[in-house]
Histidinol-phosphate aminotransferase (Brevibacillus reuszeri), 356 residues
Amino acid sequence: MTMILPHIERLSGYAQGEQPPEGTNAIRLNLNESSYPPSPEVIKALKSIPEETLRRYPDAKCDKLRSALAKHYGVREEQTFCSNGSSEIISLLMKVFIGPRGQIAIPDPSFPLYHSAAASYQVECIGIPTLDDFSIDVEHLIDSSAQAVVLVNPNAPTGLLLSMENVERLVRDFKGLIILDEAYIDFASGEASAISLIDRYPNLLVIRTFSKAYALCGARIGYCFGNEKLIAALEKGKDIYNVDSISRELALAALNDQSYMQATTDAIKRTRNHFSEQLTRQGFTVVPSHTNFILCKPPAALGYPTASELYEILMAQNIYVRYYQQRRLREYLRITIGTDAEMDAVLLAMSQILGQ
Ligand SMILES: *Cc1c(COP(=O)(O)O)cnc(C)c1O
């Protein structure tokens, strides 16, 4: 007798890609982590956690952080939800809004975690192919009969940003729930966030995270904004103490140091633009990025390594980037933007490998 539910037994688990062995000083450009430390205010907050914080249960709704986020983004507390990383929200969506045999639609390619979260709740995930240049097929998403449409904006792993006009069109014309994942929005140019739309559209949920622009992926804090009814439903569905007492203090300190976040994201954007230009000079095709990573296609000339070979060669040189086997992506590499020194090391390795 098996004790494991068949749909769980069938799961392959979330594929993170090859990781460097612990203790090696590899250049890690494969998980979109930050190469910059979190704000010094975060480290200060960490060092001044009183013992009582550990001894007491946290308040269940994460009030202090929730109210700070609401204030910062100009929404109400009842429109704000805090979570154990935004991955928790991605799972909660399946549990609270979709349910077994339900369906979600998501552009293809996009963030694979939506597929694995869906599978573990017996939700069907329908891929809507992006156009040849990876841009989002908005009409196709609007026409979907799924209960929810997921839009990662800027998208991962392409880095492309869908215009606000198109985002609003999708939210307005699609009849079900819109899950808008803005994990990388702080690296985008202009006023790209759709948070201001939540008052007008009761079917919109905007997901954010402290993992990327605030360099806190190890602390696991995510949040989302939406209509009061959606937020109240997430509160009912979550584990009671989903955000630990320490992480919420760290997130608060990070949020309160906007100038540091601005300075580090600006630095990453500058590095990204320079790195993209240099790769283009080496013959790569670079998808224009609004994130802290780039998707690029190596030059395909006789005798040059393929993307998958390049991935292996770089790994042998202790440089870890991301390679995807799937059809639309197998000629590409996804490279996280690190410090200038790290990206110079990548450029040097590339030019040596390509014999330029
Ligand atoms: C990194 C990422 C997340 C963040 O996950 P956390 O659980 O908050 O660390 C969410 N969505 C996308 C598209 C991401 O790339």
